[in-house]
Here is the input.
Amino acid sequence: MTTDTEGFVQRTHRLKGDLVAQGKRVQGVLEAAFDAIFSGSLERAAWVKNQDDLIDAVDVELERACVQLLTDATKRDRADTSELNPEQLRAVVTIVKVNNELERTADVAVELADMVLAAKIGGAAGQAFPETFRVMANSVVGIVRDVNTAVLRDDPNLANIVLQSQHAVTAFKDALLRDAEQKMVRGQMSADFAFSLHEVATACEIIADHCTNIAEQVIYLTTGAIVRHGLNAWERVEQKA
Here is the structure.
């Protein structure tokens, strides 16, 4: 391995470390957003909003650093001083894609915080948030934690577990919304509050979807396999020769 290629690997490792830190940061913001929902804490919701600028800044810096790394590598290749293999290039592309999914996950957390600040949910909304939703929220936080660990460890098995978890979140969402609809019909829940519950459940599903996108990248990076969601299950897509 040439000195230039060694430098590429070292810079990639540093970028991955920054990515892992961003993942933990996003997980913390999501936990705070859910805590704001269940506790009604305006302070926690405001903290989530304040963290958004930092997450956005890290997102931009990570992408810029990846572009610069590939630009530098291209210049070296033209000078015939190094040669990068496909695995090294995929590692950088994966960092870019995962970084984007993390930023979008944080955006969803901010939307949840906005709902608390607007008194649509939480203590100021005048109606207690159903405890059944706490189970769903904890499940989603667990999925974010697992996919962050899969990225850290380059673990395709854990990434595959994340893929399967999406079905559970969707099923949970459907069951909770059916319950909310029945309560609304019986006059036990207002239409506005039921709509807010629908927004939170949908947010949970969107977060799980971002996590499965990250899991797909981990599986592709570590095994070369491409997986896509079919009608009822995750399927391996054969690559053309």
